[in-house]
Amino acid sequence: MVTIHHLRIGRSIFTVWLMEELGIQYELKEYLRDPNTMRSQADLKVVHPLGKSPVIEDDGLVLCESGAITSYFLEKFDPEHKFSPRREDLKAWATYSQWLHYSEGSVFSPMLIQLLLIRDDAPSAMLSGFSQAEINLHLNNIAAHLGGNEFILGEQISGADFGITYAVSMANRLGKLGGHPTLQAYIDRNMTRPAFKAALKRAIE
């Protein structure tokens, strides 16, 4: 059985959501952050030296990085490709791969900077201006691509939506979704899905 190592509060709840969408049994192990640093404590570093989450274990494999975990789960548990295009359709697969990795590769960093600036007694004006401009750039890009679609790649949920939902929800927590009603509607739709609700319930039990 797959084990998901979940650090509260953070990205890994969206990996739990994926497993709920797939309908696959898993074991969930939760970890608490250090209240002073908000980083992981020593117990999670026993599983993986980075002390990050999500981390999964499956039949001797220990795997981190959200995009890699999503790809692994879909390769193993989604043989019908309900959540990703087949590689034979190379252009569709490449577009999917771009959006799968976009949230962590490009969108997350400026929002992390904003989060750290909020906690800084003397925040840098240069970093604040840079990160805010980058957040606006990425939110506009996501909104333009989403358009009137239900999901980021059209009318069918895909593996890319788990990361994009995380990124947009983080922007929402930072108060950055003003002027983006379609993005607010997007995360509202996704986070009220039965599988997402089941993931939250599982994580707080």
Describe the structure.
This protein is an alpha+beta fold and 205 residues long. The protein is 56% helix and 11% strand. The chain has helices at residues 13-22, 42-47, 66-77, 90-118, 125-146, 160-173, 181-191, 194-204, and strands spanning 2-8, 26-32, 55-58, 61-64. The chain has a four-stranded mixed β-sheet. Strand 1, helix 1 (13-22) and strand 2 (26-32) form a beta-alpha-beta unit. Helix 4 (90-118) runs parallel beside helix 6 and helix 6 (160-173) crosses helix 7. The two termini are 19 Å apart.
How would you sum up this structure in a few lines?
This protein is an alpha+beta fold and 205 residues long. The chain has helices spanning 13-22, 42-47, 66-77, 90-118, 125-146, 160-173, 181-191, 194-204; strands at residues 2-8, 26-32, 55-58, 61-64.
List keywords for this structure.
alpha+beta; 205 residues; four-stranded mixed sheet
Q: What structural class do helix, strand and pairing data support?
A: alpha+beta
The number of helical segments is: 8
The averaged pLDDT comes out at 93
Strand order of the largest sheet: 2-1-3-4
Distance between the amino and carboxyl termini: 19 Å
Count of DSSP strands? 4
Q: Which percent range describes the beta-strand content?
A: 5-15%
Helix content percent band: 55-70%
**Poorly predicted segments:** none
Radius of gyration: 17 Å
- H-E order: EHEHEEHHHHHH
